[in-house]
Every structure is written in structure tokens, then in C-alpha cells.
Amino acid sequence: MKNKELQAIVRAIGDLPPMPIVAVKVLEMPQKPDTTAGKLAKTIASDQAVSARVLKIVNSSFYSLRRKITSLEHAIVILGEKTVKSLVFAATIRGINKSCGLMEKILWEDSLGCTIGSRMVAVWFKSADPEEAFVAGLFRHNGKMVFNNLDPEKFRKVMEAVCNGEGSEEEMEALFFPYGHAEVGEAVLTKWNFSEDLAQVARYHNDISGIDPVEQSRDSKSEKIIGSTKRF
Fold it and tell me: Which domain of life is it from (predicted)?
């Protein structure tokens, strides 16, 4: 996403949500050569709520580990740094919501379902890196969270109209907001300094025709990840 387009979306929508601090620190860590399991665990542990959520996910039926994991360092050893970093993003995304009600629960469950499903598809079909598919599924609809924060009543009307068959998400969003959730989702991931591939997944998860034709011809990474996420 070009900076000019990002600025236009910010002007139209307002300030985009900041990434939770612990997630920012984790995202920056791969760039530091002295990163160790201990340092990663210490960084995550700086937020007790996130630490607890990560361990809860690690010990869930999703991973089906034989023994209960009681420490972040143990989780990193068993699952690997990349997987645990992905779990940090999963543990922090709920913090984007300004309130906690039924709609927020629906959006969270949608993200979680797509996250789990996308990773499983990537593993089964070897269609993309499983952890990248995990993160892409998690943030695929973050633009909807922005809309819900911006104007819950308008967003509720959009969701109801779509459920009642009055039109597609894109058509209904255009009636109430200056941009669609896909464009806003890409803007959020761009602001958060995620890779262009993951930002493109947010933008084109419903329609890959907007991806650069040259990239499509090269069987681009973003297109492969979309292949894992669009089933959900």
C-alpha cells in the first residue's frame, strides 16, 4: 500500500488502532541477531494477560500436547519461536476492540476460526507457511474491528443487511463507510509494519484479481496464503 493511500484512509476513517506494545516488541525481535528463547519469553512475560492467554492456547486441544506446558520458555522449546510469536498476536488481537459485547465476540470467533482453519489447510496441502497462514487468518478481517470501533451502529446495520441477503459485504459497507474493510485491514497491517504479503491478504482475501498481474504470474506468496484463508 502506497503511503498516499494509507494517509487517505486515515483521514477518512480516523486514527487506526495501535498494535499492542508486547506484539510490537515481538514483531521487532527477528531483526535482532541476539534473540534467544529466554529473551522472547521475557518479552512476552512483560504482559501478564498476554502470557496467560498464550499458555491457555498452547495447552488447548488445538495442539493436543501430552504434558501441560507451564512456562513460556518450555512452550518455545516445544513449539518453536515462530509459532509462539504467532500465538502472541492471537492473544493480543482482542485488545483492538474498544468494548466487549456480542459483536466483539462474533468478530473474535471469526478471526480465531479462520486462524485455526488456515493453518490446518496450509499444513495439509503445503500451500503456504503454516504460521504465516495462521497470522493472515487472524488479521484477515481486522478492518471490520476498525468499523465496529468507529461506529458500532453502522457496522451492525452492515452485518444485518448482509445476513438478510440485501447485498454483499462490499456493497453494504460502501453505503455506510468511505472504504471497505479489506482496504482498511491492509492499512492497519501496513501501519503495523507487517510484511506486504500479509497486508495484501487482508486487502485481496475475497478477490485476488487486484494483485499485481506480474506477482500472480510468479505464484506470489500472498496468493498462496489467500488460498489457505479464503476457505473460511
Answer: Bacteria
